[in-house]
Write a structure and sequence with these properties.
The protein contains 13 helices and twelve strands. By secondary structure, it is of the alpha/beta class. It folds into three domains: 3-54, 434 Repressor (Amino-terminal Domain); 66-167 and 302-334, Response regulator (Rossmann fold, 3-Layer(aba) Sandwich); 169-299, Response regulator (Rossmann fold, 3-Layer(aba) Sandwich), CATH 3.40.50. The strands form two sheets. It has a six-stranded parallel β-sheet with strand order 2-1-3-4-5-11, sandwiched between helices. Helix 2 (11-18) crosses helix 4 and helix 3 (22-29) packs across helix 4 (37-50). It starts with a helix and ends in a 5-residue tail after the last strand.
């Protein structure tokens, strides 16, 4: 293979071929007044012929800015996350920024590594949804102290003062549980993610508050927790609960994946949804309208959260230096999306 054909064409290559200086080529490509029309035309014609494209990264670094926002998320293949990233990218591009994306696979170690990698790429801000394992935020504190703002979105830290964009997880947990209570269910199970994470702490607290408000006793055996909360984990958790002398008659799952797994399991053993056991999830993923019956869920404005995170990041980037220490918190509302499962 001819390696020369694969070599990126530079302004130095164009200058050599035209027998002019690299600065002349650079100025001609920018239509600088100091370069004659004939030379400008020749430079642009050769640049087009040779497939020259400017090195934007090098140019931005010379200007001490990359116009790039880093995005660090647990999983790229989750509907909620992909919708969140879509909102980020849309707003970033509108503002003239590029987006650099990395995933942690819910690993604290990968989160530390990828945070440093994004910082080394000189992104101007990092938008982060925490890994499930993360309880220490020193890696974020390091990049913040070095001048790179961090915007936490959805999974936000519980004991770290930083910029945050999230839903009202407490109210969401309360409203999902209350919806089941209003529908006549009394033995309501909870499928929760790790209580190390603030979003699951708050959803759990909302669930408990709804039970207490309605005089329903809390039964710990009806609260299942998982660090992954996958389809498989949803099936495993509900299978254990169905062995109880008094099994649940309804389930609030703090994500839709676990709700789907639990629903499929109860149907596989001959139970009917919602007649024997009802379900409501959270996120309103596309899968909710594919399974039968359709899964009721709590809305989760992922794209809006992404757009807001970029807007807040840009405000911090352009904020006067004396104001960098301030923080903000944005909480978005959710609502019940009622379907056939509850």
């Amino acid at each position: 293979m001819d390696q020369k054909k694969n070599k990126r064409v530079t302004i130095y290559d164009l200058a050599t071929e035209l027998n002019v200086s690299p600065s002349t080529v650079s100025r001609a490509l920018k239509d600088h007044f100091s370069i004659g029309q004939k030379t400008t035309a020749a430079v642009k014609a050769l640049a087009k012929k040779r497939g020259y494209r400017p090195n934007l990264i090098a140019s931005n670094l010379r200007n001490q800015q990359t116009n790039t926002i880093g995005v660090l998320v647990p999983w790229l293949n989750r509907p909620f996350i992909s919708t969140l990233i879509s909102g980020v990218e849309e707003s970033a591009q509108e503002a003239g920024y590029n987006v650099l994306i990395a995933q942690t696979r819910d690993s604290y170690e990968k989160e530390v590594i990828n945070t440093k990698a994004l910082f080394d790429c000189r992104v101007q801000a990092i938008i982060v949804s925490l890994a499930m394992e993360t309880t220490d935020y020193g890696h974020f504190e390091d990049v913040i102290q070095q001048g790179t703002p961090v915007i936490f979105v959805d999974r936000v830290p519980s004991n770290f003062c930083g910029h945050q964009v999230m839903i009202d997880n407490y109210q969401t947990g309360h409203d999902a549980t209350q919806h089941l209570i209003n529908s006549g269910y009394q033995r309501i199970a909870l499928l929760s993610g790790s209580l190390k994470q603030k979003i699951y702490q708050d959803r759990h607290a909302g669930y408990l508050a709804a039970l207490k408000k309605n005089g329903i006793p809390v039964e710990e055996q009806l609260i299942g927790k998982s660090d992954r909360l996958t389809i498989e984990e949803g099936a495993n958790l509900i299978a254990e609960m169905l062995k109880l002398p008094a099994p649940p008659d309804a389930v609030f799952s703090t994500n839709d994946s676990a709700a789907v797994g639990a629903m499929k399991h109860v149907q596989s053993i001959g139970l009917k949804v919602p007649e024997d056991i009802a379900f409501i999830g959270l996120n309103d993923d596309p899968v909710c309208t594919i399974i039968t019956p359709n899964l009721s869920s709590m809305s989760h404005p992922a794209a809006e959260m992404g757009r807001l995170a970029v807007r807040q990041a840009l405000e911090v980037i352009t904020m006067p230096q004396e104001s960098v220490g301030s923080t903000f918190m944005v909480r978005l509302n959710t609502q019940v999306v009622s379907r056939g499962s509850a």
